[in-house]
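Hey team,

Filing this mostly as a record. A colleague (T.K.) asked me to run one chain through the structure pipeline before their review meeting, and I want the input and output archived in the tracker in case anyone asks later how it was produced. No errors, nothing strange. Just documentation.

Input sequence:
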Amino acid sequence: MPYVLGIDVAQGRTHAATCRRQGPGWSDPEPLWLGDRSPAAASALFLDDEGYLLTGDAAAQAGARVPSRLLTGFHRRIGDDVPMLVEGEPFPPETLTTVLVEGIAEHAANLFGGAPHHLVLTHPGDWGGYRRDVLRRALADAGFTAVTLVPGSVAALGAHLPVPGPGAQVAGVCEFGADGVNVTLATATGASGWQPGASAEGVAPAAALSTLFALAGSASAVPKSLAGVVFCGDVPPHALPARPPCPMFAGPVPPATAALGAAALAALRADHRGTPQEPPAVETTLLPQVDTLGELGDRPPRPPVDITPFELPERTSPLNLFRRRRPLAAAVLVLAAAVSAVVITVTAREATAGPGTAPGPATSAPSQGASPP
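Output structure:
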């Protein structure tokens, strides 16, 4: 059965969704069940005894028994020169993400009888062209050529506003997570798709909307002019205002919003619809059907790092006092020790003499063999 696949690799859990071909069009996005007890699965890999990588919840369960072989957080490490080590084996982060995608794609192929027509994969919003190229190459080496990479905020908009209206459009996304809310203002002009603009990370949940409206104001847009605001992630109850100034969307399963939107965007790409020219800020460039790709771009420069050595404090002892810059304290300590020794000696002599007796003159002991007088 023809279908497309959308995958959202988040920090803790990974969601996936599909759209199936229905006549000339596509069905609405549906979650793809990945976990044992929920549609999502752990964003984790585990190196077993035979050298194979387990994925998802199976990896998390095995990692609970042997934590040293568990791999997490690799998706955000893509582009880093330092590989991740497990049992002395190096694993590039982009390879680990590709293994996770392969597991999900294989699961979908077993359900639908083949590979997806198109795949949309999310990535963090702060990625540049270099990281996207690194991941794109790893996916191409694994056989994934019809791939679109989009920021998570753009994928979330795809779940409710996949095709922007005519003219200039402005919309917002509030991604709720364990470290606060990531607020993103997205724009679209003419036939172009959504492009992420100004953003703020780690915003308190109560201040998410006010922060978004402030970002909109800096872009000369009032709240009522927004095309919509999408709430996704771990949205708390009553997060949506009772009287919103613009359309607001949360969906039945907010944590799966980005994956559902990714599947909707994959359906558009499979029909060659959507953004005709994808700018670098929103990576939606189709992979060419070739064996080799062009050269990677320049690696972004790393900021300078100043390392200040941390000196442990010395252990406090009388000897260390002489090594520190405290000669007066050392002299006082030595003087006190000498006075204590004198007092103890005098007290010991008085106790040996006994009370009321005076010490007599010292007499020499007679030599051995002398006769008495």
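Quick notes for T.K.: The radius of gyration is 36 Å. The chain has two domains: 1-159+251-307, 165-250.
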